[in-house]
Amino acid sequence: MKIVQRTALIVAAFLASALPSHAQDAASPAPALLADTIALGEPIYMRRCQECHGAKGGGFVGPKLSGNQRLANAEFVIRQITNGSADMPAFGKRLTPEELLAVGTYVRNSWDNSYGAFAE
Fold first, then answer.
1. Got the DSSP string for 55-68?
2. What is the distance between the terminal CA atoms of the chain, rounded to a whole angstrom?
3. Among 2-11, 37-46, 59-68, whose mean pLDDT is lowest?
4. What is the pTM of this model?
5. HSE on the CB side for 115, CA within 13 Å?
């Protein structure tokens, strides 16, 4: 199974198990869960991503993340972090699935971004 598919299944299972049954039908997880996931993602971003994307997502070597509409596509974000691209290293083998989820959630909800959790 491809790492992106495996990560997507892990993310879906994590979200399903972390939410109360009545909240699983909602479009996004409870605000406390979202805030906790963002808080877990921030130090990962600062340690692994800020060198290229800037401490405030303003870009440098890597593209600007602040206000980046491509981050609305949750699948794109996970795929990019997991597999990398021409100029971005792949983090699929460097981060746990939970860390991938956390840093992706942090990026999707920091600065001028407000795209919620990976609930899709």
1. TTS--SSSPP-TT-
2. 20
3. 2-11
4. 0.76
5. 25
Tokens linked to 9: 């299944």
Alpha-helical regions (H) of the chain: 3-18, 31-48, 50-53, 74-83, 97-108
Cα–Cα distance measured from residue 59 to residue 50, given in angstroms and rounded to the nearest whole number: 8
Report the share of the chain in percent with pLDDT over 70: 74
Compute CA distances 7 → 14, 30, 75, 94, whole Å.
Answer: 10, 21, 10, 13
Angstrom distance (rounded) from CA 81 to CA 110:
16
Residue 94 tokens read as 């460097």
- Top pLDDT among 5 and 89 is at 89
Domains of the chain: 30-115 (1.10.760.10)
* Nearest alpha-carbon partner for 51 in 79, 78, 19, 89: 89
d(CA 104, CA 90): 13
C-alpha to C-alpha distance for 18 and 56, rounded to whole angstroms: 29
